[in-house]
Amino acid sequence: MTKLVEWLAVFGALGAIWLSLVTNKVETNFNPTLILYSPVIFVALFGVYAATVVLYRVCTFNNCDKAAAQLQEEIQAARTDLAARGFQFKHQPPTQ
């Protein structure tokens, strides 16, 4: 079962429950306005959750100093190869 089918099954089940509550097929003691606006509330809460996860992952992102040094070496090798083939750079790269 793919993730799409799983998510569609969950949303279908939640939608069926919500629809049964909105149309009074099931007796509840909940506030009807809260039931009516619950999808909007859930979408807003999901947005807050998604933003929190993205900010947390950005804050805990690790620097890869070894990969950065390797990339700089590859850039320098490419510049040397292009210069040997006759390419002229307008700006000189910063020396380290």
TrEMBL record:
Superkingdom of origin organism: Eukaryota
One GO cellular component term noted in the UniProt record for this chain: endoplasmic reticulum membrane
UniProt keyword annotations, A-Z: Endoplasmic reticulum, Membrane, Transmembrane, Transmembrane helix
Bilayer-crossing regions: 34-56
Lipid bilayer topology: Multi-pass membrane protein
InterPro entries the UniProt entry points to: DPM3 (IPR013174)
One BP term from GO: GPI anchor biosynthetic process
Subcellular location: Endoplasmic reticulum membrane
Pathway: Protein modification; protein glycosylation
Quaternary context: Component of the dolichol-phosphate mannose (DPM) synthase complex.
Family membership noted in the UniProt record: Belongs to the DPM3 family.
Function: Stabilizer subunit of the dolichol-phosphate mannose (DPM) synthase complex; tethers catalytic subunit to the ER.
PANTHER family: DOLICHOL-PHOSPHATE MANNOSYLTRANSFERASE SUBUNIT 3 (PTHR16433)
Protein name per Swiss-Prot or TrEMBL: Dolichol-phosphate mannosyltransferase subunit 3
Native organism: Zophobas morio
